[in-house]
Amino acid sequence: MKPVSLIQFLIEERRAGHINAELSLLIEVVARACKRIAVATSKGALGGVLGEAGTGNIQGEAQKKLDVISNEILLEANAWGGHLAACASEEMEDPQQIPDGYPKGQHLLLFDPLDGSSNIDVNISVGTIFSVLRCPDGVTEPKAEHFLQPGTTQLAAGYVVYGPATVLVLTFGHGTHEFTLDREVGSFILSRRNIRIPGQATEFAINMSNQRHWQPPMQRYIGELLAGKTGPRGKDFNMRWVASMVADVHRIVTRGGVFYYPLDAKIEKQGGKLRIMYEANPMAFIIEQAGGAATTGRQRIMEVQPTGLHQRVPVFLGSKEEVELATRYHLEAEGAQA
Ligand code: AHG
Question: CB of 115 closer than 6 A to ligand 1?
């Protein structure tokens, strides 16, 4: 079969009526920026890109040099094309407006420029996550409130994993598709169309060091997985934890499994670890479009009405039956308390 490039795929999606020309251009621009981020990350110590930037982001987290570089690459690439009304980044407090003198488009772009950045210095996979929304009609200078739309309104979502290969996974709400970067040619090539995540799982991803801080339903659920064949689930489960959400999600998109970042006593006040706008919503869209499920442990992630640009939520996602079971345990526990 002849290889299908990302550009060809986008043209097909336009012809199918799934996207318009402006969204197609937006995805091309983001993909091009991510190729530049891939080059920067791959230089490692030789590019002088490792280590701390000496600055903090809005969440008070120390920024790595590559967090700052990746953010700049995405901002600069998206400033002048005329496809965006504004963008918002996990690394910036407020939305970034399109500079004066450039045309504006109808779309809002949100991104986590470099997810898993604590892994950069140890040469473990990191990634970029993005989400696209429509700018409300009549809004010319979008503010945070215009971005606060539930995940169900996303027009597109994707991530790029910078691993042994650079891989882009993308959805427009018509299936989830994977593209692999051909480094010689410089193009993303379709490598899997309509990915399906198996309903059942034997592999789970969670930061086990937080176990003692979890709420009782999570203790119960993971306890049952750990009990294996002789426990109530009657089968053994394997555990994997990269601590780069992009890499953990990509494993699920590739061979099934589940990923959990539940609420725990340490992070209860902030509502969770992962950000709804930059991480949870785009990943939920990608996972649901591949036949999986994504909840906060209480409700579907994409139905949460966001109240803040940097709001955090618990994240349960992956193989449908497992996510539904873990969610049921939480809802049952709350029902029993009520
Ligand atoms: P960051 O981009 O700030 O490094 O955050 C990474 C996120 C996510 O990618 C990962 O799943 C999680 O944080 C890791 O959390 P732990 O520190 O608990 O392992």
Answer: yes
